[in-house]
Structure formats: structure tokens, C-alpha cells
Amino acid sequence: MTIVSEIKERGLDAVREWAVELDGAEPARAEPSGEVPREALLALADRVRRWHEAQRPADISLEVEPGVRLERRWVPLDTVGIYVPRNLISTLVMCAVPAQAAGVRRIVVCTPPEGAGLVAAAAELLGLDEVWALGGPQAIGWLAYVERVDKIVGPGNQYVNDAKLEVSRDVPIDLPGGPSEVVVLGNGDARVIELELAAQREHGHDAVCTSVDTLEEAEAIAPEHLVLLGDAEAYADRVCNAGSVFVGPWSPVAAGDYATGGNHVLPTNGWARSVGGLGLETFLKPVTIQRLTEDGLARIRPTIEALAAAEGMPAHAEAARR
User: Which of 80, 81, 127, 303 lies 20 to 30 Å from 164 when distance is taken between CA atoms?
Assistant: First the structure.
């Protein structure tokens, strides 16, 4: 039985037991402590907020036939759980600020006890007051099966990501993110290339750091971060498979990690072939509204009746006869 499945079965008691065994302490609210670089954090938060607010999708309305109107409107999720790896206050910004911009009512943050005070202090600056000193798979299980949040977001190590994938049967997640990846494409200053590779290695020994010679090679990897050097602009508009693309020698990945406002919670392990990184839409859901008049229903009734007959659903046809 996994940690997550045990929490699903036994609830808070299992969370407490695993927290004591793995974290050395029961789950508790984290008290703010430590030195947060206030101006830098708030500058990042402002850029993240402005960039993500610009991403808001438009509500739409269309009369597809006279008397038959469809609407699609975007509404915020009610509760979101955020996992923040140890000390990564920039990741807190990347997850919490878009959630705030989307209008999420309740944001619950989990982070390992070691360093939880720093994350709590950063959260306080952002107007968040629910930070729990609880890490690892037990945090993911707690968010999913005890707090029962609507969605879980945020990166983590292999164990956290495995837990996210496991709970995704019951609670939506953003994406499994990790280990960190960077691919450098194009001929450029050797020092610039080494700086990029060295920066990603700081994420751990399992970080993927490589250079390739062709766009096709980069596309096949579908990396979390793709750095374009040399004739960078020739490639930029052709990239389809990458979490985030950094164009030219003056666009380090670290700028996206800490300062531009672009989100640094990105797909890894080839997931960039089909999904993108965190955005405002991560914290929104579309609701479709359908309105028909009597004349509108009469107009489309033949379509209903024909398809219901083909599929052997007579009650569907009858429901359209009013």
C-alpha cells in the first residue's frame, strides 16, 4: 500500500503517522520566519500577476440557430492546493499569484518543515495565511483526501510527482514536473552555454542538461526549458515542443525562474509535446450554458429525433417533444 492510498483509506491519522516518520513532526501551521527579499519577491509577484491577468480567456455567446443560444463562461476554482519544494519562494509566487488573479477563494500551501518559515513569510507578503509544514507524498495525500481541494499544483521530487499522478484519479493536478531539464540549441558563446547548464544542475544530480545541433532533436526531447542561441530568431517561431523558450544570449533561463513573470512551473519528461506550463487557465474552468426557445427546440427537433433513433435512445427523442 502506498502512502497516498493509506491516506485515502485512513485519513488524517495516516497523514500524522507518515509526517512524524518522514518529516519528524506532525502537520502544523508554519509560522513566518527568515529573511525574505521583500522587494524582489513583490517585483516578481507584480510581473507574474500582470502577465497572467493578460491571459484571461474571453467568455463567449453564440446563437447557433434562431432560438438556440450557447454561452461559455470561465469561473475560478474554489479551492487549490499548492506544493512548494523546500525554500522555493519563487515557486510559491508562480503558483499562488495566478490562483489569486483567477479569483480562487481558498489557497492551501504545503511545504516541507525545513524551510517552512521562509515560505510562510513569503506567503504573508502575498496575502496568504494557510501554509502547512508538511512535505512529500503525505502532503499530496492530505490535500487530496483530507482537505479535498479542487486541484493540486506545484512541482516536487520524484516521490511528490508520483503521488500527484496517483491522486489524479480523484483530484485534478496541473502536471508532473521534474526533474529539471534544459536543452541548448545553436552555436553560441561556450561560456553562456556552460552557465545555462550549470544553473540547471543546481536542481539536483538528476537534472537533464544537454546541447543539440538541430531543432528536430530539440523537438524530440520536448524539454522543460529550451535555450536558442546563434541564429535564435530563425528557430523561435518554429518551436512547438518546449515548456518555455529562451531566445538569444541575453535571455537566461534564470530570468524566467525569478524575474520576467513567465511561469516556471513547466512540463518535463516529454510532457511538453501535449501540455504547457502553469497559466491563468490552470485555475479556471469553463461552464457551458444552453438556452432554447420553443421555436428553437422545434427547429432542431428533427436532428434530435434522427440521431436518437440511430443510437437506440427513444427517450431522448421523446424528451424533445414538449
Answer: 127
